[in-house]
User: Which sequence fits this backbone?
């Protein structure tokens, strides 16, 4: 486990003041933690602060919204990012999930205050209140069209909502436990869900019907991901002819991140098991890097990179801390990960050849939401396609936290 840098949660605000100071630390397993501070000495004509670090730390590149800090003795550096927009009035309690529409204009989010809302991503103005779930809503996401929302709740129901008038067009029932994650197949004729009841299901949106139970794991399924498998992978053959209502399932594999320390692959059309990999702790999340490689993150901080053609042993296991890996998404030739790091959200961008860039958003929450990754996934996807629409610029990320003062905030940083 490598050393980790941490910084005062409100460092950006503290260093805006004359002679302002913010603490930082470097923690390495088995060694005493090194503590230090950053002090503002002045301000350039461009408005960029002049920052000095205490002994043992070095300040690198500084902008109005970021600072690069390193600890040479431990050979570690981290770029800390400050939000440039905060939405504090969307929810009153902790936010559990977030997504941004494909065009970048709308956001949808859920909260433990019992609400699910659609809002303007430019200014946080609430546009729609989506009401109909009983108990908390765990997950939400836009369909590719950006006009429809899919949600899953603790009431074991999936719902499809109209963005235009907030009406619930479809309700899926069949799970026996709270729904923990969803995925959309291609353009959205079919959708997927996983649940605390240990099953993953395929649904037909047009008929409001379950097309099949893809897996029954006997343990909660915390996260799922669907992708096109490499042609060399044997996905198995369906035991019976697939329904004509199945659209886009051929040649795809479904990943299941399970609570019982297992990561499972299932042929989406065949329903046949493809592989079963045992990790070090409960798997929280998973994502595809390509048709060949995929990632999965565990509760004890491990990130496994595996090859779908041979899952007997991981290509690499990455661990920066023992904090839970909450979410993962592909980014260029590498990936981005978030961890609940003792009151900080951090992530790494690591390419398959081993080069790495570490960034962090410092917060002090009583509860950290993993919902930010949905927005990050959507925004990075847009950036990779070269889109620059409205205010959504390349490589912006949304982060959601529930701060200790009881205010739920959406922090937008880039």
Assistant:
């Amino acid at each position: 486990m490598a050393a980790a840098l941490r910084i005062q949660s409100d460092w950006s605000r503290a260093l805006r003041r004359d002679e302002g100071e913010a603490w930082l630390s470097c923690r390495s397993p088995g060694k005493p933690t090194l503590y230090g501070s950053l002090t503002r000495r002045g301000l350039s004509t461009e408005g960029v602060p002049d920052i000095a670090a205490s002994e043992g730390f070095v300040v690198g590149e500084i902008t109005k919204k970021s600072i690069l800090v390193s600890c040479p003795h431990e050979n570690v550096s981290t770029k800390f990012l400050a939000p440039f927009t905060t939405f504090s009035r969307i929810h009153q309690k902790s936010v559990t999930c977030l997504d941004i529409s494909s065009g970048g204009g709308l956001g949808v989010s859920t909260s433990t205050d019992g609400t699910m809302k659609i809002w303007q991503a430019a200014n946080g103005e609430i546009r729609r209140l989506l009401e109909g779930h009983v108990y908390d809503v765990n997950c939400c996401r836009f369909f590719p069209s950006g006009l429809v929302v899919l949600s899953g709740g603790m009431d074991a129901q999936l719902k499809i909502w109209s963005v235009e008038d907030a009406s619930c067009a479809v309700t899926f029932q069949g799970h026996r436990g709270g729904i923990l994650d969803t995925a959309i197949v291609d353009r959205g004729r079919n959708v997927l869900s996983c649940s605390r009841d240990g099953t993953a299901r395929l649904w037909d949106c047009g008929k409001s019907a379950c097309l099949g139970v893809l897996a029954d794991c006997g343990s909660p399924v915390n996260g799922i991901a669907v992708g096109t498998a490499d042609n060399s992978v044997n996905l198995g053959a369906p035991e019976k002819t697939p329904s004509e209502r199945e659209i886009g399932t051929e040649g795809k594999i479904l990943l299941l991140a399970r609570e019982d320390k297992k990561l499972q692959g299932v042929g989406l059309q065949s329903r046949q098991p493809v592989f079963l990999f045992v990790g070090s702790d409960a798997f929280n999340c998973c994502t595809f890097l390509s048709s060949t490689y995929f990632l999965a993150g565990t509760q004890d901080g491990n990130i496994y990179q595996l090859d779908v053609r041979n899952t007997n042993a991981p290509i690499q296991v990455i661990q920066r801390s023992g904090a839970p890996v909450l979410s993962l998404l592909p980014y260029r030739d590498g990936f981005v990960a978030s961890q609940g790091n003792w009151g900080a959200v951090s992530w790494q961008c690591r390419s398959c050849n081993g080069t790495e860039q570490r960034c962090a958003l410092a917060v002090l929450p009583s509860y950290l939401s993993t919902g930010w990754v949905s927005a990050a996934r959507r925004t990075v996807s847009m950036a990779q396609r070269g889109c620059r629409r409205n205010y959504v610029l390349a490589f912006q990320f949304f982060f959601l936290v529930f701060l200790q003062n009881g205010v739920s905030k959406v922090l937008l940083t880039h």
User: Anything to note?
Assistant: The mean pLDDT is 84. Residues 4-81 form one domain. The chain has two domains: 4-81, 85-413.
